[in-house]
Amino acid sequence: MRRLNPVKMGLVLAGLGAAWHVVRIVLVALGKAQPHVVGSLTFPETAAVILSGTVAAAFVLGFGFAHLWNRSAVAPRRVIWLAFILLVVAGAGIFAWNVVLRPVSVQVAKVESDVPVQVFGLGTVEARVQSKIGFKVSGVLAELDADVGDCVTKGSVLARLDSREQLAQVARARAAVAQGEANLQRAMASVEKAQVNAANTKNISQRRQTLAQSKIESAETAETAKAVADAAAADVGVANSDVAVAQAAIGDAQANVQLQSVTLDFHTLTAPYDAMVITRSKELGAALAANDPVFTIIDPTTVWVLAYVDESKAGEIAVGQPAEIVLRSQPSRRIAGHVARIEPESDRVNEERKVEVAFDRIPENFNLGEQAEVYITTVHLPKALLVAEAAITTIEKNTGTVWAVEAGHLQQDKVSLGHRLLDGRYEVTGGLPDGAAVVIQPRSGLRVGRAATIAKAQNQ
After folding, report:
1. CA dihedral of 311, 312, 314, 315, whole degrees rounded to 10
2. How many domains does the chain have?
3. Residue partners of 312: CB distance under 8 A and separation at least 6
4. Residues 259 and 217 in one domain
5. Cβ atoms within 10 A of the Cβ of 412, count?
6. Cα(297)–Cα(129) distance, rounded to whole angstroms?
7. CB of 322 within 8 A of CB of 338?
8. Given pLDDT bands bounded at 50, 70 and 90, which one contains residue 222?
9. 437 contact partners, CB below 8 Å, separation of at least 6
10. Is the pTM here over 0.85, yes or no?
11. Sign of the CA dihedral running 163, 165, 168, 172
């Protein structure tokens, strides 16, 4: 068997290793490959260390291989042990390269534009204007003209009570007015009669007084005539009083007519506004007490979502902010809306704030009480560096610790955190050195000072 020169074999392998690294250095210089760095060393220093280490390791490997080759015929057991040692050394070298020396590939966060910050709320579809309506008087339900789901206009008839008794009351009141007017005419005629009689007795009294002064009539006759005239004048006053009493009676009768007519109107139930009927509580023939609800109606133009938002997230919500509404029956559709009102009182038990979100355009088909999700946009970030919560450690208030690539090496930096998005990402607002990139998917093997390369694909 031909013997090998261990020194020559070591030099050959050392030369091949050196040539491979020289080619790689040239590719890095041309921008065709990523540079390797070790610890805090720069690229040239790292290249020198790796090159010299490779030359030394290749020389030892070549020398050992040649020595093994030369002795394989006379000492097979030693050869086996030597081969095992060489394999262990090679494995250790590969392990050291992969775990310690080889740069780790990481993905980093990129700055995003026009990022909406939203607050989530869960609630139900409700109507701001909702009324339970019924009759102001008691009676028997004789007519129903509306049912659940009907849309009615203001003033349209919804139901009626049996009004025969009340119609009789109205007729009776009107008859009382007619009777009062007749009594008034009679009283006025009595006034005219009394006035004529008073005028006649007054003239007689005046003549008798004249004759008594001339001694033609006795004084007693003159006094009697005067008394008759005074009584006739008093009768005129009584007749005028009868007229006033008749007029008052007519006013009372007319007021009673108005009262009975209004009560008759109360036997008809009409819509107080343009509405939708959502409940009908009574049926024909039902005996109703005053103010018993017959229908529940809503104003369909006031439908909105009553949402509950966690108090810790509700501080930035304001009236007028845009929102998106997702109904449970239409999970794939986002309906535009806006914050219409913020309740001044929170839920003390659940620590949630009540927020009413109105539809920009109310859906044609809606269901009161349906569960709905709301996404309220509180602010738009023109530029934002966003990092997933899983990539941040030791989050405390508005700070956290992240892995970052700085000058080709991994470091851990304490950064300031801003808004938190609904997808769990935080806005990094400060604390990063210039040129640093935040690692968005930490992996095993990360350690401070280890060389790192930035992967081209970004799948945050």
Report:
1. 120
2. 5
3. none
4. yes
5. 14
6. 9
7. yes
8. low
9. 108, 109, 404, 405, 454
10. no
11. negative
Q: What is the largest CA-CA distance in the chain?
A: 199
* Distance of alpha carbon 307 from alpha carbon 371, whole angstroms: 9
170 and 256 co-located in one domain: yes
Q: Is residue 309 within a helix (H) or strand (E), and if so which, with residue range?
A: strand 303-310
pLDDT in tens, 37-87: 555 556 677 677 777 877 787 777 777 777 766 766 555 555 555 555 556
Look at 175-179, 204-208, 286-290 and tell me which has the smallest mean pLDDT.
204-208
Mean pLDDT of the chain: 82
* Euclidean distance between CA atoms 398 and 297, whole angstroms: 49
Contact 368, 304 (CB under 8 A): no
Domain membership of residue 327 as a residue range: 118-128+298-380
**pLDDT digits over 318-330, tens only?**
999 999 999 999 9
Q: Using CA atoms, how far apart are residues 44 and 40, in angstroms rounded to an integer?
A: 12
Amino acid (1-letter code) at residue 218: S
**Cβ-contact 288, 141 below 8 angstroms:** yes
- Same domain as 272, residue 151: yes
Q: Is 67 part of a structural domain of the chain?
A: yes
DSSP state of 93: H
Residues 231 and 246 in one domain: yes
Q: What CA–CA distances, in Å, run from 114 to 126, 180, 381, 386, 387? A: 33, 83, 5, 12, 16
